[in-house]
What we know:
This protein is an alpha/beta fold and 320 residues long.
Amino acid sequence: MLRPLFILLTSIAGFFAQAQAQSKLPSTQPQEFRVTLLGTGSPTPSMTRFGPGVLIQAGGKHLLIDSGRGTTQRIWQLGIKLGLIDAVFITHLHSDHVVGLPDLWLTGWLEPNYAQRNGPFVLYGPKGTQQLMNGLEQAYEWDIKARIADQGLKPENIKSVVTEVNKGVVYKKDRLTVTAIEVDHGDLLKPAFGYRIDYDNRSVTISGDTRYSENLIKHAMGSNLIIHQVAAAKEALLKIPAIKVILDHHTSPEEAGTLFSKVKPQLAVFYHFVLLAGPGIPPVTEKEVFELARKTYSGPMVIGEDLMTFQIEKDKVIQK
Ligand SMILES: [Zn+2]
Ligand SMILES: [Zn+2]
């Protein structure tokens, strides 16, 4: 007798709990330009560093750069409804950057107050993004049909609108602009983009995955905030071919420091830590990444953490 009652009580509690975000930032003010790291990790299934994802709040819009593992949880952890994401911009199609897409797309369609998307799922990304969404629509066809027939969910809110991008301005709404920057992730890994977001004479540049890129430097010039990926491994691992391949597709701490020195942002932030380990050889730590980057850059710099927020003002970037 007790057990069914317990189950009933816990499921009621569960129903209410699901509708509550874990923490809330105050909502943005007009003119505010806010950037939040939703995930700063790599493919490693970490509980503290989720997959790559950066939330931009500016000009009344919510833009998401990449949707790695756990971005959906992080968005609601901020108290932001999943349905409020106006557009997602994909840097490239490596799985760690898109594995969170079906969750955001499908869960964002549901009726509870954490979701409630009213309109299509809007996605920008490189060539291949449309094919990815076509595949997801096929993979989740049963769920989509069932929820329309059974729950009466609106078909128009599960539709996706995909724009495959080339370098240059890809999104413009009033004073909010997103520019795709061609980066160099490797000869077999094209196309790959970084994104620069400009709003009201302020800007942030997000590297995506890239080797040291002069083109990224050129287009990041004048950005208040730079968010850059980083990869490293201990000396003993550098000869292992599999490690070499991965490091060759990314930027080292020293190279990132050189890039920061050239761009001179008001703040440089590391995210998407690709810190490789081997048998008996631990990964380079974040502290060591910081020290290595200090060899080539002496300006303001932060090791990014999930849910770190930055407010971009005219003359400074405030970390919250
Ligand atoms: Zn990649
Ligand atoms: Zn990556």
